[in-house]
Write a structure and sequence with these properties.
Order of helices and strands: EHEEEHEHEEHEHEEEEHEHEEH
CATH topology of the largest domain: Rossmann fold
Radius of gyration: 20 Å
Oligomer: single chain
Mean pLDDT: 94
Number of strands: 15
Number of helices: 8
CATH class of the largest domain: Alpha Beta
Strand order of the largest sheet: 3-2-1-4-5-6-7
Largest sheet: 7 strands, mixed
């Protein structure tokens, strides 16, 4: 039988998945002591659990939430759970996926190794910054979902999508995201040109040789300050776009969301990967569909 366990950051998503999939939940009692350490205790643990799904998001504080996830996983393994699936829409340190400078520690691999050593057999996450950076020897199944369907459904339900619409990525590396949404909506996709000054490191954008549509949907995986999105949307507006809507998979800072929302001419939204007032794109259905593939 399949059961769902939620860490402290996964309760809302775990409840949604349990309702969609009709899986039972295993309760988790937590208590934080005065020295900062935390007690975890499973409540009403069933006699036999073949497969457990642990829902725990790994946004800030990353180290605390990651340790809680690992602790839960190892506790389940010690109780004889044979298969362990982790659902973590926001995977911490996913951008630390290479040695950008000599001596850099590739923290992304460290996170994956810790999960493997804690008994994880499958990880479901959302919109990794660079899917090509997933190691071949990760040691378990890693599923990277794109929020393409819920994004497309939102715009199809709220707007009349026609030839005046297009999807734009802020750079060539994110074009696959733009194309996935554009294909669902039956419209064009393209990308801006990203330039970085080798002396100052400052990033600029241009729309060279690009037909800018009247209505734009800009999609990207993550934003921390919002500055890149603001610059990109201004370039599109200068090129003739009347409405620039922005969708981000992972909104790290609500302050960045406020900055974007107050600047762009259209609507700003993010997925529910990280809680915020802008996190309105539901991802529970696409995660449930993925879980059904190996539990039905």
């Amino acid at each position: 039988m399949n059961y769902i366990v939620s860490g402290s950051t996964g309760n809302k998503l775990a409840s949604a998945l349990a309702e969609i999939l009709h899986f039972r939940r295993i309760g988790l009692f937590t208590k934080t002591f005065s020295d900062g350490e935390t007690l975890l205790r499973f409540e009403d643990f069933p006699e036999e659990v073949e497969h457990a799904i642990v829902v725990q998001n790994l946004f800030a504080p990353q180290e605390y939430n990651l340790f809680q996830l690992l602790n839960i996983c190892q506790g389940l393994v010690r109780r004889g759970v044979e298969r362990l699936t982790v659902v973590s829409p926001y995977l911490c340190y996913a951008r630390a996926d290479r040695e950008a400078y000599p001596g850099d520690i590739v923290s992304f691999k460290t996170v994956l190794n810790l999960m493997r050593d804690s008994g994880v057999s499958r990880l479901i996450t959302l919109d990794l910054h660079n899917p090509d950076a997933i190691p071949e020897d990760v040691g378990f199944d890693l599923v990277n979902l794109l929020p393409t369907t819920p994004i497309a459904e939102y715009f199809r339900s709220n707007y009349s999508i026609d030839h005046t619409w297009g999807v734009v990525a802020p750079d060539e590396g994110a074009l696959f995201r733009a194309r996935s949404v554009a294909d669902k909506l039956g419209i064009d996709a393209c990308h801006l040109i990203k330039n970085r000054d080798p002396m100052t490191g400052e990033v600029s954008y241009s729309a060279q040789e690009m037909d800018v549509h009247e209505n734009i949907i800009m999609v990207d995986d993550i934003t921390t300050s919002g500055s890149s999105i603001v610059k990109s949307s201004q370039i599109l507006a200068d090129k003739g776009a009347k409405r620039v809507h922005v969708v981000i998979s992972h909104l790290v800072s609500e302050e960045a969301g406020e900055r974007i929302n107050s600047t762009i001419s259209g609507n700003f939204m993010a997925t529910e990967s990280i809680p915020s007032k802008f996190s309105t794109i539901d991802i529970s259905q696409i995660i449930a569909e993925e879980i059904r593939k190996f539990t039905s």
